[in-house]
Amino acid sequence: MRSSLAPGIKLITSFSRDSWYRGFTLFLTFLFYTSYHLSRKPISIVKSELHRNCSNVVRPLNFTGSNNETWCDWAPFDQDNYQTLFGALDNSFLVAYAIGMFFSGIFGERLSLRYYLTAGMLLSGFFTSLVGLGFYWNIHNIWFYVFAQAMNGLVQTTGWPAVVSCVGNWFGKGKRGLIMGVWNSHTSVGNILGSLIAGVFVSSAWGLSFIVPGIIIGVMGVICFFFLVEKPEDVNCSLPQHHCEQDPNLDSTANEEIFGSPSHSLANGSIPVEPANEEPKAIGFVAALRIPGVVEFSLCLLFAKLVSYTFLYWLPLYIANVAHFDAKAAGDLSTLFDLGGIFGGILAGVVSDYTGGRATSCCVMLIAAAPMLFVYNRIGEYGLGTTIGMLLLCGGLVNGPYALITTAVAADLGTHESLRGNSKALSTVTAIIDGTGSIGAALGPLLAGLISPTGWNNVFYMLITADILACLFLSRLVYKEVRGWCGFYTRMRGFKEI
Predict the structure, then answer these.
(1) Dihedral sign, CA of 284, 272, 352, 345?
(2) Which of 129, 118, 115 is nearest to 38 (CA)?
(3) What are the tens digits of pLDDT across the range 334-384?
(4) Of 34-48, 428-442, 484-498, where does mean pLDDT reach its minimum?
(5) Before 76, cis peptide (omega within 30)?
(6) Which of 1, 121, 319, 393 has the most CB atoms in a 10 Å sphere around its CB?
(7) Rounded CA separation 480/257 (Å)
(8) What Rg, from alpha-carbon coordinates, does the chain have?
(9) Across the chain, what does the average pLDDT equal?
(10) Buried b (16+ CB within 10 A) or exposed e, 333-355
């Protein structure tokens, strides 16, 4: 009697070779960018250890210092300007990241993604660990930490354009919002793991809070070198379908209104189109800006990322100061914001796939986030349950639009039909969108550092204002999406509106 095939083998063989490679690439890039964010998080956890309330700390028996107020702090963060110094550390990373991102996409289009990611992760591991070595080398010069943070910000720009380009090469437009919504949870997973790992060492030897994540991202760089497959054609897999065929009887208004008419773009000569028998060339920075929708989503992300990164860098300190938790407990609680961000990103992706309204999905969540931030600031300190609930809710509403724009929207624009299958635009478009957003990421923690001495209420007013501005930049795209749903179609160039 012939034995039946084992259930596990049946499951394995039920997936095609293409599916296995796509799943493997998605999993690898998830791990890679998780390690990028994991290595960014320790600074926010360690802040509350570098400057503490020494009156609540038991003085060691062998302590010989004389300053009773700051004896437990780490110089130079033991002075009254410690918040300004923390802001300098944040912004040395974020400003370098924002500047480097605009160039990173250009390099990413022209270099091997595998080599580019490998080099970026190895260098990021080195500079992350360098900050932690300052603890063991007993370094108290602010410029040492500023330099290490700035260099880390610069090399971290290798990550996002490269992983989005790689995923965009393997996955078509269908269900892109859902797939990338789930995949983009690497940002929150990295933040959570980074917080937990840093929290293990922060009270005993905070240098390890940086060194351990540095080692992890370095190991990921080695794995990238040996296993990443950049394109389906490299392993003889089928190419993805970036643009779904449309019913000729239906007007493709939604795409034309939001992303512009292909004939319009080509008529203006704004986007270079390569003949089918030639290797596509990378498009220029200006040509990428001319893809309709890039500017609006980029400016929206500037303010959305301002809010998200202010929470990333200042939330543990806010919880420690306002809710009076210790450094480890504040770091652990701050991970709930990122946990909420995972569900928010997936929800935004699913809704935008179902409705076809990327801009509207973002705008609705941003509108809901503004009053929730106000409520959290008012009631977040009144109990652990309230804090947990508000952190989850605010995390979902703040990070949902941020996740959607940096993944599905960027991939849509970078593989827009007017490019005629030229995937070389994807990394540049991704870099422009995320680079503009990174300007906001740099401004948010800087403004928080300047405003927080006047009171945390003012910091939250700044965040609410940023949310409202993010909505305003999407207003034109939302209006056109709603008109498309209601049956109103704008005219093509040279034709009157119906």
Answers:
(1) negative
(2) 129
(3) 888 988 988 998 898 888 888 888 889 999 999 999 999 999 888 877 778
(4) 484-498
(5) yes
(6) 121
(7) 6
(8) 24
(9) 81
(10) bbbbbbbbbbbbbbbbbbbbbee
